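User: Please predict the structure of the protein below. I'd like the answer in structure-token form so I can feed it into my own downstream comparison script.

Assistant: Understood. Taking the following sequence of 179 residues as input:
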Amino acid sequence: MSRIGKQPIDIPAGVEINLGEKTITAKGSRGTLERTIPSGITIAQENGRLLVTRASDMKDHRSLHGLTRALVANMVNGVSQGFEKKLDLVGTGYRASVQNKKLVLVVGYSHPVEITAPEGIEFETPTATKIVVKGIDKEKVGNIAASIREVHKPEPYKGKGIKYENEVIRRKAGKAGKK
């Protein structure tokens, strides 16, 4: 039995779960998310909890059991609390700003880089060198944060670039350090 798959998912107050034949819909204060359930996996709602079970011990069902439970738990957390990723800009003159749902990055190129927020994603810039990506879908938030980081990855010599808030950049010695 999957260690993650057998754990029940607690449904917080204010979250509505609708179980269809092959879909699950979570509706909360922040929005609505829907996902299809793979064949061989069943979800039951009882006593304010969701239980994810699998039809058999086939390899496909075992691999999907924990995955489905984790995805459903992320849906429930997303519609009730939401997710966020924080990024830092490191470098002289590097800055970010939000203009009309677009994130404008000045990161050492000859032109500013604009990133448009997809539906369900918000950008915030508490300071000029910090970016917060917020949303209810964990997958979307992570993908957008990764694409922002991809604009100018941190380099190992001076550490300049866009990095996650808690990311540790392994530094290399330059030419002078090779003696």
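That's the full token string. The helical segments are 59-80, 138-151.
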